Amino acid sequence: MNLEHRATKKLNVLSRASMAAAILAAASVSAHAQTFSVLYQFPNTGGLGNFPAQMSMIQATDGNFYGTTFAGGVQGSSCCGTIFKVTSAGQFTSLYAFCAQNNCPDGRSPQGGLVQARDGNFYGTTYAGGANNQGTIYRITPLGALTTLHSFCHVPNSCSPDDGAGPVGALIVASNGDLYGTTSSGTAFKTNLKGKFTLLYTWPTGSGPDGALLQIGDGDLYGTTSGGGADADGSVFRMTLGGKVKTLYSFGSQPNCADGQAPQDGLVQGADGNLYGTTSGGGDSGCGGYGTVFRISTKGKLTTLASFEAETSGANPVAPMILGTDGNLYGTTLNGGDAGGGTVFQISNGTLSNVYPLSGCYGGHPYGGLLQSTNGDFYGSDDGGCGADGTLFEFSNGLGPFVTAIPSYGAVAAKIVIQGTDLTGATSVTFNGTPAKFKIVSASEIKATVPAGATSGTVDVTTPGGTLASNIAFTIVN
User: Fold this and answer.
1) pTM of this prediction?
2) Are 191 and 212 in contact (CB under 8 A)?
């Protein structure tokens, strides 16, 4: 599938005229004890970016949020994408606009968002542009200096090797320090932080891995393909860091696509150690239905937990879920709901519930996933807004602040970054109760060393305001 064509089609189908008219006054609404507010709206001039809906924002070690827009920038709304920073108070900074030179050698149309590596810089991909107009891998500093590290090459270009085209999912930083990702044309790759590129695996034509990879404590990478598999309805796979791939499950294996079709996003690990994901189609409504939520073990045993049913629970989830600090999974649907947009949904003990309906002006149709900030609130993006070229929003479900260990696994003596809010004055850091040496870098960052004798469990930081626990357990590896 041509993902750039798909993204353009989204812009046309969900046009500004199709959204319900509303006045954005204070831009704060509430429902059922939750609160929803607009963090930032992109002006419809396009100069600061347009269509930020396909990525999930990240929270960097400076406490701010970073993301990308698919279009907009120096050439207006139709081209070519931007990179931005925004604070939790909504202060917006445009860091970079793609196509700074003719023919876009720096890339254009980023879809996957960013990842922050251990060197403090951000890394991402563009869907198109570069030397062959088939996408790039880039590095950008916190101050906005961009370096193109790799240009993808795929047919009809003459390539050796053919390393793919059109990366869509975000890059991840693996335990070996390298960056791993996939292309929509069907390849998996890695690169080091200096840009040394390695092609790892090529799927059969039509497989289309679109979501980001996930590395868990066993060291392997897990992901999905939107096509391919035994029934051409997509699959779940496991891949070693060296690129050996095994298909764990093929969707469409059950009658009438009851197990789902075409997963468009990556996986998340739940508190129980299993992997969770969604499909954009199939389910109780049959082939071509509204999608499903599934659980799968690392050995490939799949259980369909729920089917989406349009107005009651949303429809067509295309973004990855996240694990909230309450132990529940949160995600978004592209459509459905009773407010004219998509929904924010929750999976609690395997049960699906619609926790917030999104309207055309407040959240719209989110193609990207949610971010839970260390302040406890959720942040996301949509494709438009009332008279705007996209919206960044904040959603609160009443959850408190926490800390995040980066990475969430490591051996004794490993150096770990702990990210949080109001960490100044911290007096203690423990790994599952074992005290650790640490250094306060800023109000949002602590550097700690995994202590001898530590066992797997939560990381706790004691501050003047109380003790903050990590959102997921830290895994000790040998």
Assistant:
1) 0.90
2) no
